[in-house]
Amino acid sequence: MRGLYLVIAAACILIIGYRLYGTFLASKVLAINPAIPTPAHQHEDGHDFVPTNRWVTFGHHFAAIAAAGPLVGPVLAAQFGYLPGALWILIGGVLGGAVHDLVVLFASVRHDGESLAQIAKKEIGPVTGVAASIAVLFVLLITMAGLSIVIVNALKHNPWGTFTVSMTIPIAIFIGIYMRFLRPGKLAEASVIGVGLILLAVALGPVIKSSGLAPFFDYSDKVIELALPIYAFFAAALPVWFLLAPRDYLSSYLKIGTIGALALGIIFVNPILQMPAVTQFVNGGGPVIAGKVWPFVFITIACGAISGFHSTIAAGTTPKMLDSEKDIQIVGFGGMLIESFVAMMALIAATVLPVGDYFAINSAPAVFATLGMHVDKLPMLSQLIGEDVAGRPGGAVSLAVGMSYVFSSVPGLKGLLAYWYQFAIMFEAVFILTAVDAGTRASRYVVQDMIGVVIPKFKQITWTPGAIISAGLVSVTWGYMLYGGDISTVWPLFGVSNQLLASLAMVVGTTLILKNTGRISYALTTFVPFVFLFITTLDASYFNVTKVYIPKAMWTNVFISVLLAVLCLLIVFDAARKWAKIIQDKKGMAAKRIEHEKIVSDLAAK
User: Fold this and answer.
1) Of 375, 379, 412, 87, whose CA–CA distance to 269 is shortest?
2) What is the pTM of this model?
3) How far apart are CA 418 and CA 103, in angstroms?
4) pLDDT tens, 128-177?
């Protein structure tokens, strides 16, 4: 199997999915109406609610949702072979993830930019609202800590990567000021300057690493674990135009540019996928993932196909920046499909490695010795890169090695293998950090909503003391989890909790569509993915609790897993009662159907 075939297939399926299914959902099911003012215009305050150019909003949204999941998840899922992962990325991305992101973004825009928990409370009921608030907050905190661990492992004692990532912060602040005060409306001009400065920072990375400045960017893991929550606090508390939006927008160029270059490299090199379509580990017992292909390929790939974390962005920062409802499809549906393409590129980069090399990187040396496999090009690659890359599980290193392998296969670039490897590590860190800052800001909104029940003033997200206190609480909490935990205590929770949150978002979407359209057939667009994902995720959670957490006495993981499962079951039960009540009201359903059809007809006429 050639990598080029997967690139072409992915591009065609995702483009067709956007054009046909995305347009159907936007125009027929949701009836997106550009004439309705968005929350960014209705509540413009220059801090959180800021009408923003479509492409800046898209850049922010894509940069925020595209974290470790689409990069690391498909790499780990390659244990099962390239076919299960490729199928789920394409099918799940179009029918699941893109629908999820589109519907949640639409729901938040129509609910004044409110969080998923607040939307759930209004659409389903107060019990669901409280349960969803607790679930969302837990998932967000776990996500921030889990994603940050990947950054820590990528940047510790890595002056090149730390310098480049650090420089994106002052560059973003400068571009934010430039676009708002110095040259308002000059987006193309600001983009050229900003991207140019980021590329300069990337180019200077090797120089810094070899200079006397290297010690100033050479940090231990504990120092980085303290620095990340501090940065996230400022990103969450400062006005969105000042740091978060321009940084995410500029980072999106690096992300899309690198993935585009990887796609071109795959097209040019057309490498053979060394990993078989299906491996012997589909029945379980693999060295990377212990469980079977079902349910764990769906849980492991996560953000590459569908992600609950996206709902915290689509119902967090993005709806407060959206300039017009006509941008919902490109930002919500389109952003997710590009992330699926990223996931496919990551899968290809992992599977072009010789099978033995892949498992040698993603397994502990003692475990790899029991597999009866042999390394092929790994010693040579390690020598060219300048460090031993064997026995580094987690997906990040194998992705970087795979990307380096593709780039170095282009004639004349083999001597730059070490550069490509370090660039890939830095690229992954930037990819993840943009999700950490946006996620922390979304967590701040959730905390303000929760405290606002007792102290109403906190519900005003523009109230500076409330914003600072809430951002501080969030940053300290996930920072504590990060500082006191490791990849084995935090990361295993991420996959399951992330997919449970996606299930809850689909429950809310089903309720919204059923109430607004009066059509059961339209509600199936979110209900069917919900049923599949919910059953799959609960099965994976049961496996983790009984086969992994309890035997290893990981009681915190047991508590959080059980709590999230109970909350989700409570929400589903509450929603089912709501659905039954809506469907039983035949007259109400008929009236809503007629009203919705008229809205769709009027919009089509315009």
Assistant:
1) 412
2) 0.86
3) 43
4) 988 888 888 888 888 888 778 777 877 788 788 788 888 888 998 998 89
